Amino acid sequence: MTDQTALRAAAATASSPHDPDQAAGLHHDGDPGPDRAVAPRPDIPLLGYMMASVHDQLRPLGTPIPHDRLASLSPDRRAAVTCAVTSAVNGAAADLLDLLPNLRRIVSAGAGRDRFDHAGLARRGIELCDTGALVSSDTADMAIALLYALARDIPRADAHVRSGQWTNAHFGHRTRVAGKTVGVVGLGRIGWLIAQRLSGAGLSVLYHTRAARPDAPWAHEPDLAALARRADFLVLAVPGGAATTGLIDAAILRALGPRGFVVNISRGSVIDEDALISALSDGTIAGAALDVFQSEPTPDARFATLPNAILTPHIAAITEDFAAELAAEIARLVRQALP
């Protein structure tokens, strides 16, 4: 190779970055670089926090843009955006959507749709794609785990051993699960799996929906209060939103009774929390297991004082298997909407 040829090769190498983040217009801290006349790859706005695995899947497709950097992009780059990514927790803020005039699809991590302005999305011509099918199995597993943890009082049994109390006192009797009746409120993907798995575990399953499902092998109870009266366990698996806000109120909890337990893996808004705290405090019901709350991540502090409440930080779907599947599914849905 001549010196002149070597110089040309070196110049070509210097002008063609090998670092994929640099090639994508990202600095090494992961932030978008200065605007360019033509973006080398599609920009993919992130309308809220996303797991690292999602970033990893999106980078081969385009440049992930954090929501707090969108306004700094040039109007041309923002106008070129056709797809954005968010989550059921973050939703899609109107001020962010205003920055993306040609957005046509939002891919949302999770099943929840209650934090989206559906009429507003329709007016803008934006399609909302959720990943709810992926959360179903893990969420159903969590509901069943919480039900058993309540019935057998597992958190307090663990504390009994750790504290050394076992040497001085018997832990006492708890509730058998097999042979009991569970009332499943909502029979969508998650509710169906809960009913199916608990039926296999030897429980009698009833379910409540506005209309009976002809394909369901379990008994339908159209009256929610009657379901609560018949059930030992009430498991909530309904969507959030105005139609289900405060669905489980003081009257339903009284119907469930002092030997009844409630499990909520749906949305915190589904339960009247003041009524639930009162019912747990005065023995109206035996216990509750909650993975969701009206205020997250700062639930009502009174819950922490209740020994008959099991509290988990909205982790029903959060497993390693789910994280990998979610990232791949988000990438697939994004890829479909890119130019």
From TrEMBL:
Residues 144-316 form the D-isomer specific 2-hydroxyacid dehydrogenase NAD-binding domain. One of its GO terms (cellular component) is cytosol. Pfam families: 2-Hacid_dh (PF00389), 2-Hacid_dh_C (PF02826). The keyword Oxidoreductase applies. Residues 1-42 are annotated as: Disordered. Residues 1-14 have a biased composition (Low complexity). InterPro entries: D-isomer_2-hydroxyacid_DH, D-isomer_2_OHA_DH_cat_dom, D-isomer_DH_CS1, D-isomer_DH_NAD-bd, NAD(P)-bd_dom_sf. Keywords: NAD, NADP, Oxidoreductase. It comes from the Bacteria. PROSITE patterns: D_2_HYDROXYACID_DH_1. Residues 83-336 form the D-isomer specific 2-hydroxyacid dehydrogenase catalytic domain. The keyword Transport does not apply. Residues 18-34 have a biased composition (Basic and acidic residues). One of its GO terms (molecular function) is NAD binding. Belongs to the D-isomer specific 2-hydroxyacid dehydrogenase family. This is 2-hydroxyacid dehydrogenase. It comes from Pseudooceanicola sediminis.
